[in-house]
Amino acid sequence: MTPEDRDAIIGFFDRLKGLTSERDPEAERLIHELMEQHPQTKYYVTQMAFFLEHAQAEAQNRIRELEHALEQQRAGSGLFGGLFGGGRAAPPPAPVHAPGYRPGMFQQPGGFLGGAAGTVAAVAGGFLLGSLLGSLLAPPAEAAVPPAEEPGEAEDVEVDMGDDSW
């Protein structure tokens, strides 16, 4: 364990101990029992939670970047997009990182942080595989009902108006 790993773990638990919310006592007992039966899971759950905290921050950064790019595109388009100062680009939003962030922290070989990405990938792969197998083994869905016709899509119907001699 590196000093950075130690600081990351301590900081993560410091953030968690400040949480206060209503907890389901039955769920809490079950989690406690499962952690007692499988003590190695404490390590992996901590890795996953720490990694996902950082992944969520990165996802939010990417969303902000894309929203900013879309706003810039909209501001520069249209009939008078470049006139009256409309062509100036606003600076992109500054990235916000989860506490304890360091560039490349999950790419270091070995250790707690270096193994976190692999743990999450393995768990996510298991979820995806389970979902895939579940969908393959599920009973076939009932035959699809054809959609109702939209107005204006009905077959051409000729209406006999009687005498055409007007």
Features:
about 170 residues; mainly alpha; 4 helices; single chain
Which segments are poorly predicted (pLDDT under 50) over 5 or more consecutive residues? none
User: H/E order of the elements?
Assistant: HHHH
Rg estimate, integer Å: 28 Å
Question: Main β-sheet, in a few words?
Answer: none
Q: List how many beta strands DSSP finds.
A: 0
Strand content: under 5%
Rounded average pLDDT: 79
Please identify the structural class as seen in this structure. mainly alpha
Tell me the helix content: 40-55%
Terminal CA distance: 97 Å
| Annotation field: number of helices | 4
Q: Overall 3D geometry?
A: extended
Short overview:
By secondary structure, the protein is mostly helical.
Describe it.
By secondary structure, this protein is an all-alpha fold. It has a domain at 1-13 and 25-78 and 108-137. The chain contains four helices and no strands. The radius of gyration is 28 Å and the shape is extended. The model has no long low-confidence stretch (mean pLDDT 79).
Ordered list of secondary-structure elements with their pairings:
Blueprint: H1 3-17, H2 25-37, H3 41-76, H4 111-137
Helix pairs in contact: 3-4
